Inverse folding.
């Protein structure tokens, strides 16, 4: 029986994408993609999600790729421009779950502790959670078991009573290995149907 629902945030409830910023900085799409795949890479960004200070991460890349300094500094200097809007369909599902009063609702997110407050100011629904575990604050992240265990222990959640929702299949599989039923998020519509199948909605 599901008593707890754990949400990922980025690409599930919040539309975040570096392309929103860098399309304004590069004339050619191919040039932008090359930069994001080879300079400010997802792996590099995940180190900040795991607690590395933004200034340290920026300095490291600038020293490594001085010819890209302006664009590297923009990643966190203009980070708020990477935030799109809320993913309204998922927010509506979240609202329904909250208003039902049937579940404990938590967020488990890979997010820099330095940029997360920007999202908190922009998205009121982040205050609806019964608790939020932010990777940058914990200096740990998905898909490592220890990060999931932080939430489970802190909020006394039993894995067999929880349901986890994440857009990253890697993170979904990690949760399942811990005995947490999980949904690989693709669209709000698909999520709604899956929650109905599980009699959660």
């Amino acid at each position: 029986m599901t008593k707890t629902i754990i949400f990922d945030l980025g690409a599930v409830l919040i539309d975040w994408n570096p392309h929103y910023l860098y399309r304004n900085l590069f004339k050619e799409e191919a040039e932008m993609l090359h930069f994001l795949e080879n300079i400010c890479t997802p792996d590099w960004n995940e180190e900040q999600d795991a607690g590395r200070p933004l200034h340290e991460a920026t300095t490291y890349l600038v020293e490594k790729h001085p010819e890209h300094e302006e664009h590297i500094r923009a990643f966190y200097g203009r980070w708020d421009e990477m935030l799109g809007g809320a993913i309204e369909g998922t927010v509506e599902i979240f609202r329904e779950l909250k208003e039902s009063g049937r579940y404990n609702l938590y967020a488990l997110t890979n997010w820099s502790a330095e940029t997360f407050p920007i999202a908190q100011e922009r998205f009121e629904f982040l205050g609806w959670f019964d608790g939020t575990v932010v990777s940058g604050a914990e200096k740990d992240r998905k898909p490592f078991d220890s990060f999931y265990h932080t939430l489970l222990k802190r909020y006394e959640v039993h894995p067999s009573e929880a349901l986890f929702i994440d857009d990253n299949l890697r993170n979904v599989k990690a949760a399942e290995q811990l005995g947490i039923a999980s949904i690989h998020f693709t669209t709000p519509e698909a999520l709604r149907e899956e929650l109905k199948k599980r009699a959660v909605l």
